[in-house]
Amino acid sequence: MERKKSRWSFLSNGYLVLVLLFIYLPIFYVVLFSFNESKSLTNFTGFSLRWYENMFNDETMLQSIYTTVLTAVIATVVSTVVGTVAAIGLSKAKPLVRNLILEVNNLPVMNPDIVTAIGLMLLFISTKVQLSLTTLILAHISFCIPYVILTVMPKLRQLDDNVAEAALDLGATPVQALVKVILPQIYPAIFSGALIAFSMSFDDFVISFFTAGVGINNISMYVYSMKRYNPSVNALSTLIVVVVTLILIAANVIPRIKDKKTKKEED
Amino acid sequence: MKSFFRMTYPYILWIAVFIVAPMVMILLYALTRTGNSTLTFQFTLENFARFFSDATFMRVLLTSLRIALLTTVFCLLIGYPAAFFISRLSERRQTMMVLLLTLPMWINMLLKTYAWRGILLNFDLASEFKVFIGMVYDFLPYMIIQIHTSIAKMDGNLLTAAYDLGANKWKTFLKVILPLSVPGIISGITLVFLPAVSSFVIPKLLGGGDYVLIGNLIEIYFLTAGDWNFGSAISLIMALIIIASMWLTRKLDRNAQEE
Predict the structure, then answer these.
(1) I need a surface site. Which of A97, A181, B8, B148 has the fewest CB within 10 A?
(2) Which of B15, B26, B238 is facing A104, going by the closest CB pair?
């Protein structure tokens, strides 16, 4: 029996390792080839940092990083604020109205990106709004808000209405009740909504591709429109991998340290 | 509490302009001819007739459905055992595995697809197979995470009960674990099939110029041919197919749960 069990866990662990290898293969590949000496995509000829150097001298590439970050930051801030405010309002609405608005809110989440993209493009062009960085940012805000609402809404519905009522009865203005009572309770949901909005915006290609003006490129659009293969893209990918890993580690480790601290203080 | 509802007014205005209006525009363009007929509302079904009467377009549609279906089936075949094995690990390791699976999802899809382009240069493969690998790669983590969530939510006592009542491992899996993980399978299928049908980056980067899926067709009619009316009609057809398949999966899900 014991032996059968260990053979079983050997097989299942082996399978999981294979799946992880598949999922990490392209990531290992970009990290390795970002240090390649030559331009080759198939042979690793030796170690060099020239593609990192190239990246920092490549104006178009740096411009695309700047556009991506700028768009993501603005879209995250605006969509988090608008989405949270809307979600709080919606949670107090009549069920019929709330469900109707939520159905519409879900459209961009359910729709294929390309449908959302051409819809926005048609909207901008037929209202004679020139495609530009502004239309790109507007489009990003509009597809990020639904995700913020979907993240914040469930948390709001768990809240006890009586607490806000009590605050109002005790003389708090609605704004005070909102800032001092409701917001602190849903803060973690707002934070994860903002995180989702940021990563959606940062990674978007399709919607950006149809709504950005001529010459405005984010990282995805830059990679897509590359005429010749540019190994500096591997250097850029490697940097993104490092940043994402650090953020995820931080997001998972910091709460644990905090937990330990509060536990210690309680002791 | 009425004063709180006023907080949604700006958002209602926002969705009217940025969600409802674009959908109406697509519908209007799809139902009219090129020229000023969008403004004068002379409706026609010409664009739809053109799509369904042309063998080339039908072939593109079928190819898109085929590769999306293949991708979904393989994600399920690879993903289910993975999700199941993960759920048998200790809690600490489960969190670790889910974290490892989520990490690549945060990395720009274009960059990962570009890396695959480099890797696949080493092999001589048919374009459809390259696109297939790229799609399975991109969507597999979603499938695994959805199924894992539904298995992990399961009450462990159910398994103990099944063993106590004399079921062996296989029987427990088939009669208890598998049926209870159907909701996870359904949401996994939705998360893979829907974006796979409309995908246009992966076919373009991995399949080369001659491999066209329905998403690429929409891009061509909007950006190269400049025929927004026909392009809108194609995207409407695609949206309808997606809505229909979603309705079908939901119905299957309901039937399975009633059983």
Answers:
(1) A97
(2) B15
pLDDT for B195-244, tens place per residue? 899 888 899 889 877 788 999 999 999 988 888 899 999 999 998 888 88
Report pLDDT digits (tens) over B106-144: 888 899 998 998 899 888 888 889 999 999 999 999 999
Whether B26 is in a domain gets the answer: no
- CA-to-CA distance for B49 and A28, rounded, in angstroms? 48
Query: What's the pTM value of the predicted model, to 2 decimals?
Result: 0.87
Q: What's CA B224's distance to the chain center, in Å? A: 26
Alpha carbon A168 to its chain centroid, in Å, reads 36
Residue numbers of the domain that contains B118: 55-258
- Rounded CA-CA distance B211/B205 in Å is 10
Domain count, chain B: 1
Determine the residue of chain A that is closest to B7 in CA distance.
A89
Is the Cβ of B65 closer than 8 Å to some Cβ of chain A? no
Judging contacts by C-beta atoms under 8 Å, the chain A residues touching residue B103 are 244-245, 248
Amino acid at A59: E
The CATH code for residues A60-229 is 1.10.3720.10
Distance CA B77, CA B134 (A): 16
Cα within 13 Å of Cα(A234), Cβ side = 28
Facing residues of A36 across strands? Answer: A47
Taking CA–CA distances from A252, the nearest residue in chain B reads B99
Interface predicted TM-score (ipTM): 0.87
For residues B154 and B177, is the Cβ–Cβ distance under 8 A? Answer: yes
